[in-house]
Amino acid sequence: MRIVIVGEDAGRAGEFEESLSYFDLGWDVQWLAEPDAALSLGEPVDVFICGLRLGAVPGPILLSQVSALYPQAVRILLLDQGEDSASMQGLDCAHRLLSRPLDAGELIEAVDSVAELRNVLGSEELKQAVGRVGSLPPPPRLYLELSRLLRDPDASNAAIAQMLSQDPAIVAKVLRLCNSAYFSGGREITDIRAAVTRLGHQQLLRLVLASEAFGPTQLAGKEREAIQDRALRTSRLARRLLAGPSAELAATAGLLAEVGKLLPGVSDGSEGSTGPHYAEAGAYLLGLWGLPMPIVEGVAFQHRPGRLKASGFWVAGAVHVAASLVAGAPVDEGYLRSVNVLDRLPQWRDLVEPSAAQAA
User: CA–CA distance from 191 to each of 43, 143, 313 (Å)?
Assistant: First the structure.
């Protein structure tokens, strides 16, 4: 694993590499003082890390240049505490965001997740295709921050509402969705704290994720709205097919089942289309964002859950059933028979919700 770090205090290199040595990872870590040196490395790079500001060269600009030279490299941007939201909005060139100063443990966790991702989705064509995308959908910053906050059992609805209020655009989208036919309880919700109370933490978390993941894209407005509509219906159905914590994983995977369609140069699955399939491309993007592997696998194997090594009916199976039923596509009954749930299919068909247009 070759890791290149640009612009960080080279005086920390010895201390940092000593921390890494305790884990006996065998990584090749290279520290570069000047951004220009990163453009003439020659050999392939697995992970590329830099800060938001590198003197005359902004970090996002350098990452864009690196993506053209080393499309397979995972690009990590380091942020200081208190980086303003305006700067954050332009971070569409990084796969992962980490805090400065760079922590060995956080880096190991991020790189390990990438290694696991490549074991599941190891196609070189896929890595190159996603890596070449000039403007990836940015990591869902608010979703990741909110996820961390919700791990605190003492997190209050007021604290959650305050965090969401950092981004008025997200607040507007969440309130719009909260008052839609899917979630409305009859009384209009006009403030974010009331939305937190109505939706509950996990539902709110998914709505924030939907708002960020399906933000500005190259898709036309109606096409994007149609994808988001299917995403919400698939998410709600997938959640009902599993029990316990697995239900939340299935709901999130269902929400993101079509996120790969937001990437240029991917196949939509129709005959004659070229490029990596949107399911695998979307899953690879989610893995780069750092979402849990069951969600990544659920998205990647949504059309062929039987190819996943895990036995039994789990996240990928739930997403397959939910996405197929919502889209009106055939369900793999042979797979359902193999995992002993085929008899439940008629009941699941009855759970499919109408589209937003039909409900209006």
Answer: 53, 19, 39
